[in-house]
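[audit] Reproducing an earlier prediction to check determinism. Same input, same settings, fresh worker. If the tokens differ from the archived copy the diff job will pick it up downstream; this log only records the rerun itself.
[audit] input (355 residues):
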Amino acid sequence: MWRGQHRDLGIATAADFFTDRNLQALAAVWEAAGRSVERSAMRFAVTAIVNRASRRYQWNPKRPTNVLSGTLYIASLTYEFNVFSLLRRKFAAVAKLNQALVDAPGACTVNQSSATELTGVEDRSVDYVFTDPPFGANIYYSDASFLWEAWLDAFTATDQEAVVSTSLSIEHGRKTLQDYEKLMASSFSEIARILKPGAWASVMFHNSDDAVWSSLERAIESADLSLESAIAFDKSQPSFKGIKQITDQERVSSFDLVLHLRTVTSKSARRTEKKVVAPIEETTLVAAIGELLATAPPRRRTTPYIHSFVMRLLLERGGPLTGWSYRDVEALLESHFINNAGTWATQSRDTEEMA
């Protein structure tokens, strides 16, 4: 998990993410929480503030900017937030939550296990699965969880984390796209095992790399799950990478897709239902995009949305995804449509909007 930035800042342990003063304050409240009759609630509150209490909190003279989620990034100018001020606010929030809790009918079971081995869940016993797995190399969740895991002394098994992380050493969880595909395939196999016959699963996913998409598609097929449809999911709050796309024109996807899968009753049925489709012609994609641009609002005429649209089209029609990365879709748009301040338009619509 350690990056060059951490080495340059002299960070070698979890303790180095904190100033001496805040580290001592956190240690004191952590010890006190361990002696409390409300130990779990107290430690829940403490772990909830550790990122803000760390050197990751950024300084902004105009307003608090919090920490960047999904990373272990430390800004060049940081702010030492008072631990006890943070804790008072968090205790108030936890107390408010406790008051809002009500008894509800039914039962809820929480299991902690690897997605590749859902121990305790019987075969063909689940009506529906929703999963939001890691998107290739987009976010290293072991990094995102590192600081509170350090206080809990329970760390993510990075060797089993389903991410593409070729820049890391093997010791720290290095994985190729092939490693990622194997872990995803094992996870989808478990989903297929626990779903009732004909039941459905929904998978939230996106990536700008066509190779990652192809890897996901193979993992789904290997588990004898059938991709029935896909819909776009518009995230109202962009992620860190989504903001990078807006501010730095970084080629990343801001719109996720929700893939709807269902179990297939037998392997012979799976082979029968498997679509054999030739690559979709570029002219077909251009025509479909043109129809979209003719009526879509501005937010759905951006490159991120249109990339999601193309992926959905290819997935639903069974066409190969290879050759349709974010950059490939962008090049297609540049060749056939007009870019007007970040949104795409057909020649006729652009003329209408300029009039």
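[audit] rerun output stored. Observation attached for the diff report: Residues 243-250 have pLDDT under 50 and may be disordered.
[audit] end
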